[in-house]
């Protein structure tokens, strides 16, 4: 028992020590201020590089806006609350795998609007359209110098406001947009070998008539492409349309993909918390979001998706997971040491299956068959005499029957003569006086009656 208490106390001490050590070693990492080289474009970020302001404005304006924290395979479901527009902003914390990109493009092809806002074009999310391919890459930050994301003057120094290259739904109500100096220049490359650049003339939706335009000459095998309004129609390919330009730098393009559309903006600063309030940046962001259906922001790849168990995600970046791991290791160690033998093998104790009642019954049966009634009386009388001597307060080995009977009679209501007679008859049987079964049963019954009167019945019953 002492060993178990010692083990229990040791276990409690170890657990308390582990808790104290984990609590003492845990240091909350101070969040560093936002910067363009470590930008966090999530809608949960209220800093300069975050998109919380854009997200809150959409919600407060009554649009259906959600944070998409599921895997991309959920986009292919049949839920009526599936997003109509999906924003993927900036460099994501989790890379977009090939299978995930295929799911996103399948959703877009089925009629969704994919809005990609980043300074580097991702070929997984910006697939070619026929012979046309989109390329964009900004200059490294160390070349242009790292500006303070909160400082508008530093972020936009030497940058001309971007103007709509042509009217469209995405540029409706937009006079100018202020990008940052890190905005990438979008290039539309013709994979067919021609150096011509697709130039599309279009009219806004509110125009009186659609204007039809033709792209530059294409290879003979390709038919002429016709544009009506701001929608490009072609049975073979549809060229991306350049919609915003800052000087000679294009920053916004749009092209259809299946039944949906892909929109690419080359500067996340325009929709960030620090830049969305500049000139018509907010209006452009609202146009990109559209007005119909659910607008989703990809938070799964920003690190907020449920990639593991919800309980683990809740306690992530706290000392709790480490503590549970240590407790599991400690329990495994205890189980291992408890089942391991450290010394020579010791035989297992053999339990005695024989009870006292079995012993008494066996002895009684043996004495009955051998007709040794004197032995049975001797066993019972010897025990009763010891109890009587203890009750009377005398020495059992020296006291005589008459004295013992007198002492017991003085302290109880038992008849002295009857008790003395029974005691003498029992002693005579023990000395060799013949006795039959009826006489033996009578003597034992009287002895039992004396025990009951003196309160010895409980003890007598326990020895049966």
Short description:
The chain has 464 residues and is an alpha/beta fold.
So what's the CATH class of the largest domain?
Answer: Alpha Beta
How are helices and strands ordered from N to C?
HHEEHEEHHEEEEEEEEHEHHHHHHHHH
What is the share of helical residues?
25-40%
| Average predicted confidence as pLDDT | 79
Number of domains: 2
Overall outline: rod-shaped
DSSP strand content: 5-15%
Notable characteristics:
eight-stranded mixed beta sheet, 464 residues, disordered C terminus, alpha/beta, three-stranded antiparallel beta sheet
What does this structure look like?
With 464 residues, this protein is α/β, with parallel strands linked by helices. The protein has two domains: 36-307, Rossmann fold (3-Layer(aba) Sandwich); 357-462, no CATH class. It is 39% helix and 13% strand. The chain is built from 15 helices and 13 strands. The chain has helices at residues 2-25, 52-60, 98-109, 141-144, 152-156, 281-289, 300-304, 310-315, 320-338, 356-370, 373-392, 401-411, 416-431, 437-454, 457-462; strands spanning 65-68, 83-89, 113-117, 132-136, 163-164, 186-190, 213-214, 226-228, 231-233, 241-246, 249-257, 260-265, 294-298. It has an eight-stranded mixed β-sheet with strand order 1-13-2-3-12-11-10-5. It has a three-stranded antiparallel β-sheet with strand order 7-8-9, with no helix packed on it. β8 and β9 (231-233) form a beta hairpin. The radius of gyration is 49 Å and the shape is rod-shaped. The two termini are 33 Å apart. Mean pLDDT is 79; it is low at 194-237 and 458-464.
